[in-house]
Amino acid sequence: MDFLRITSLIFICGVLLNFPAKVTAGDIVHDDDLAPKKPGCENDFVLVKVQTWINGEEDAEFVGVGARFGTTIVSKEKNAQQTPLTLSDPRDCCKLPRKKLSGEVVMVDRGHCKFTTKANNAEAAGASAILIVNNQKELYKMVCDPGETDLDIHIPAVMLPQDAGITLNKMLLNGSSVTVQLYSPKRPVVDIAEVFLWLMAVGTILCGSYWSAWSAREAAIEQDKLLKDASEKELPNFGTADSSTVMDINMISAVLFVVVASCFLIVLYKLMRFTWFFEILVVLFCIGGVEGLQTCLVALLARWFNRVGELYIKVPIFGAVSYLTLAVSPFCITFAVVWAVYRNSSFGWIGQDILGIALIITVLQIVRIPNLKVGSVLLGCAFIYDIFWVFASQSLFHESVMIVVARGDKSGEDGIPMLLKIPRLFDPWGGYSIIGFGDILLPGLLVAFSLRYDWLAKKNLRAGYFLWAMIAYGLGLLITYVALNLMDGHGQPALLYIVPFTLGTFLMLGRKRGDLKILWTKGEPERVCPHVCLESIEESNREG
Which segments cross the bilayer (predicted)? Predict the structure, then answer.
């Protein structure tokens, strides 16, 4: 792989890894300190499923949000009754409906009076529930005014978006018999998608680390051979691969990460609502995915077809290219193009994960942390970056910039492509469990560094640092999932938990074992030159 190709791959990955901590598809329960609770107005805001039947046949399902007031919505579908739906007269229900109701669900328009007034009038007319149609496509939290006292409401109130109200209104005006079922199912405490996502993240770092360490060990062995046959005094550092295939991160680039990543995140936040900009992101992801997938496949096939892997041909612009690269490139390009076309399909996540994992593994093999000092600065900056843009950005932008970008809220797409994701198969609300590239790649650089050091120092798993770094990363990611569930699905900055676990474990072990100075500065174990060892052995043999 030539320098130009490596530089382009690193640039693409640098763009793609400026993405967020793990979040889920949507919040089912949401509390809001700006809408304080008081007796009669103390419900949590919950999403509500409104299943419809037209003339006895199951039809569309809509999603609304429950009000702060009224009775709570049942959580199990089997406990929810199918109830006839009717229109209010007057439509806004600011006055008592002219027609007496007998347990129907009444649908009213928003406006002209308080939400609680509508609910009280609907209950007085005999309605069993009230659906309030918003005058916008978005949902709105229905709260109580500070001075309200008439809050003894015993029917559930749900707000529907404008498009849902238009659809239901057409059905009713056509004379169709419409019945609805209201319920708010709870998400499972642990979804199998989170387990598989955890395994994917850990497995990706594991593969990338072993590939990186294997390359470093092969380079060290090759240099040992050169030292045995050569007498030059100045030779490359041990344990480093050819400079054309590896790029070390320095202190400046580690610090600049926060600045560049923050600027790019703001650009995403402002421009991702434009279709052309989102398509650029897709193209960048495809280019990086093709490079990653191609590199991984060539590396694997080269182990089985050694002779073919060593044959090269000159290609204009690209220079010398191996026959294996030419063989797998059409497949990789086709794979990425097919994913781009069908990325919004139900199976699009599979291609996205394959391309993303290949890209991350490739970068873990190419980009390296030279020592623990640079790793600490990089992860420390990423730690601050993650926390600020998930939590602190809400005070500046009135919403979490990181979470908005991750979900693709303003793009009209099903999330951005720079994420690993798995559908929540057993979640009644559907959606995806996702994790950002940065939450795998950045800690992965430290874990890969630990394995390279262990192999060069000839440490076994228990006496080395890699095993404990992997365990620390797995625990940190696990704690992220626990925090996510405790926060009712609110997005969490994964590096908030992962960085203290991985970096903290590394630092404590290094200090305890007396290796911290070498790890912090040099990043490689002290090694004796092979020709010096041979001379010492020969001298001892002569003396003997």
Answer: 195-213, 249-269, 275-305, 317-341, 347-367, 374-392, 429-451, 463-484, 490-509
